[in-house]
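Chapter review: from sequence to fold.
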Amino acid sequence: MSRFKAGSFFIAGVFVGVLACFLSLRHHNGSIVRSKSLVGPAKSPSTGHDELSRMSRSSGIVITSEARPTSGRYQSLEVLADLQKRKLIKFTTPLLDREGKLTKAFSELFELTPEEMSRVQQSFDRARYELAAQAEQRAQVRVLSDGKVVIAVPPFPSEGGKVYDELNQSLGGVLGDERNSYFAALLDDQMELTFGFFGAGDHTYTVGNAVDGRDGYSLEDKVVQRTQEGGTTGFTNNTRFESYDALASYVGPVVTMLPPDFKKLKRYGG
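The token string follows.
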């Protein structure tokens, strides 16, 4: 699930030097590699569709590392995936920007052609819309004393799991077996975060208009999900928007549940 700073940097200690010398690995804008000695291993969220999707994936498009085809074309991806498999690094890069568009870092890392970028964007857009539509059906709204509005969406793991599988199948059709296997190895957790754990957790949007001493819209986007071990995992993103359209683009159809006066941007104290 959970989900992204621009800028190129690798924090992988000696492994970066090895990679740079061995393959002249390119640095991609927004890509992050964190050394596991500095950052502990992230716990994968446990969802109703997790085991099926991650281990066998009903679409049948994921290839295990033991059977991964290696053409030699995507050497950067191959090396990163191998290091991540051996838990030497933790790699991540944002898939979408705050407007929901593919990031340059992701597109360059996976060497997407313009046509492939368009198809992947369509796949992501469709998944976002379907998840937002499911959320809108279940959302509950309440207004806080300070004027903020809380939109609470309970989990919908079954429906979200279908969206997850459909998205993976669609991506596999665009990326092909080799790049898709690297995507699964490197960015599956990032995709869960980008799409709010695909409905497997409690999702809460807290929206303010001209509050907290500042003009414009504030948003706390929070997802909390229970793990198999009995704990919780999730994320909280705090963002500000200068227009209602920008807020709506990020939140999706759920934004229609805000009070009508939220469409007018207010000034703090005005």
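Two observations follow directly from the output. Residues 9-263 form one domain. The first helix runs from residue 14 to 23.
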